[in-house]
Design a protein that fits this description.
single chain; 19% strand; 558 residues; 35% helix; alpha/beta; 19 helices; twelve-stranded mixed beta sheet; four-stranded mixed beta sheet
Length: 558
């Protein structure tokens, strides 16, 4: 049987005009800034006008540790929201925007899949409303003003060897990780080592996603630390008088984007920090807007619960004062067998022994949600045709031992109809009492906060702070940054900092090589393992399969 690709399904969809979607969401046209017929930005003034309206329930969709077999977190988020609407509930989904790097690299598009997608899929996966371009421009304006200050006399006394601010481009380009620039003579700049980050790793992306309004954005931009003086004092964007112009570049990017699912459900798609090197959540403004307009807001955080969910709780919820009602942990039998040691080519064959060996990965994420975050949760098991009844029964039995139900999810094949069972369980969980809490306390020392995450969330035996990291943590505490939350930069492929350790490894050590303050975003980044802020393209990049015909119809964007 020939299946339609994701892009073919999306292109066959008869989309509703965005004015109809906005009306359905409760957004008056006076707040609507249309980008064509099927996407729009929302004037943030609506949040002031909705201030007295009570918030709906907030549901986070997270997942097990990702594998090449796929889990389907965004697909589940979309299908769950459509399923809630089919139950007669007022529901809205809030998602991140895809980065061009993964779109042309390994992952491909990130607008859901099958019959649980947000559309217009091509626009969302490519330039969309230009938010990422604006973020990159603001990032690079700050870099240009920094280097120009040094060229024009360096009255602030910036040490060129202590600059922490990098340039940004929204593309996987390993060639730009480490560069030397300013060459060519006295008038061409100050020669120094430099580098690029992918735009979604830029602190400005995090700043935009954590800002509550335009003026909060401006204040946060002003606090960004770009480097240090010769005597060790931090230099900020405000010192360079850059925050006003940067805010001007971002004044439209901060407005939430409204699109729709294949079933016409309103969807806010806004912001997109990576979860392995940033905080991995869509914008606070989009989430708050969805909460005011709906009874149920479904959102996601990047990668597994050890990264995305932890940062959603300890950074986003803490800063924005959000209180989620429930979490969904997405898993597949295929992925669990991969964690149990089965090669990708053999995942379609029943293997209860391998499944049992891989199940601890799921169960550890579930325990973290229940015992660390204090929230009720359900396991959404994305069903594949090769899954056997015995395999499904084993997953259900093991989850029941933890007091957690399993809901079979068939949203990829059936859209909202395939998510109704999951939606019913989510509605039930949202009425349960919860004991929502954070992983650590802000007044703990930096190293102790990192150790608490490593032990409580990753279940590491030891934390090793390398000398450079220890020294930097002490310096940051002395400068007054010690009470900020932690943003772990860690591989997404393991609970540990070693991507080859699958399942639920034990007895390992988390190694922290460096720490850095993101004072504008309001967190400390702790770098572990070999994590990089500029990915590279694979041997066969997804870009090789993407094409466009004479009518402008795009193909290969899966």
């Amino acid at each position: 049987m020939a299946y339609m690709t994701d892009i073919e399904i999306a292109q066959a969809c008869r989309m509703r005009k965005i004015t109809e979607v906005a009306k359905d969401a409760g957004v008056d046209e006076k707040y609507l800034e249309q980008y064509g017929n099927y996407k729009a930005k929302i004037d943030p003034a609506i949040l002031k006008d909705l201030a007295d309206r009570p918030d709906g329930k907030l549901i986070l969709v997270t997942a097990i540790t990702p594998t090449p077999a796929g889990e389907g977190k965004t697909t589940t988020s979309v299908g769950l929201t459509d399923g809630l609407r089919r139950l007669g509930k007022n529901a809205i989904v809030a998602l991140r925007e895809p980065s061009l790097g993964p779109v042309f690299g390994v992952k491909g598009g990130a607008a859901g899949g099958g019959y649980a997608q947000v559309v217009p899929m091509e626009d969302i996966n490519l330039h969309f409303t230009g938010d990422f371009h604006a973020i990159g421009a603001a990032n690079n304006l700050l870099a240009a003003m920094l280097d120009n200050h040094m060229q024009q006399g360096n009255t602030l006394g910036i040490d060129p060897k202590a600059i922490t601010w990098k340039r940004a481009v929204d593309m996987n380009d390993r060639q730009l990780r480490h560069i030397v620039d300013g060459l060519g003579g006295k008038m061409q700049g100050v020669p120094r080592e430099d580098g690029f980050e992918i735009t979604v790793a830029s602190e400005i992306m995090a700043v935009l996603c954590l800002s509550s309004d335009l003026m909060d954005l401006k204040r946060r931009l002003a606090r960004i630390v770009v480097g240090y003086t010769y005597d060790g004092k931090p230099v900020t964007a405000h010192d360079l008088k850059a925050e006003g112009a940067m805010t001007a570049l971002l004044k439209d990017a901060i407005k939430p984007n409204l699109v729709q699912t294949l079933e016409g459900t309103p969807a806010f798609v806004h912001g997109g920090p990576f979860a392995n090197i940033a905080h991995g959540c869509n914008s606070v403004m989009a989430t708050r807007l969805a909460l005011k307009l709906s009874d149920y807001t479904v959102t996601e955080a990047g990668f597994a619960a050890d990264l995305g969910a932890e940062k959603f709780v300890d950074i986003k919820c803490r800063m924005a004062g959000l209180h989620p009602s429930a979490m969904v942990v997405v898993a597949t039998v295929r992925a669990l067998k991969y964690h149990g040691g089965v090669p990708k080519a053999d995942l379609g064959t029943e293997n209860l022994e391998a499944l049992e060996k891989g199940l601890p990965n799921l169960l550890q994420h579930v325990r973290n949600v229940k015992e660390v975050f204090g929230l009720p949760c359900v396991v959404a098991l994305n069903r594949f045709p090769t899954d056997t009844e015995a395999e499904l029964a084993l997953v259900e039995a093991k989850c029941k031992e933890l007091g957690v139900n399993v809901a079979l999810s068939e949203v990829w094949a059936k859209g909202g109809e395939g998510g109704m069972a999951l939606a019913e369980e989510v509605v039930r969980l949202c009425e349960q009492p919860n004991h929502f809490g954070f992983t650590y306390e802000l007044d703990q020392p930096i190293e102790e906060k990192i150790r608490t995450i490593a032990k409580r969330i990753y279940h590491a035996k030891h934390l090793l702070m390398l000398p450079a990291a220890k020294k930097k943590a002490a310096e940051l505490e002395k400068l007054g940054f010690g009470d900020l939350p932690i943003c772990m930069a860690k591989t997404q492929y393991s609970f540990s900092d070693d991507p080859t350790l699958l399942g639920a490894p034990e007895g390992f050590t988390v190694n922290v090589s460096n720490v850095k303050v993101c004072a504008g975003a309001g967190f400390i980044v702790a770098y572990t393992g070999d994590i990089m802020t500029m990915p590279g393209l694979p041997r066969v990049p997804a870009a090789e399969r993407i094409d466009v015909d004479e009518n402008g119809v795009i193909s290969g964007l899966f």
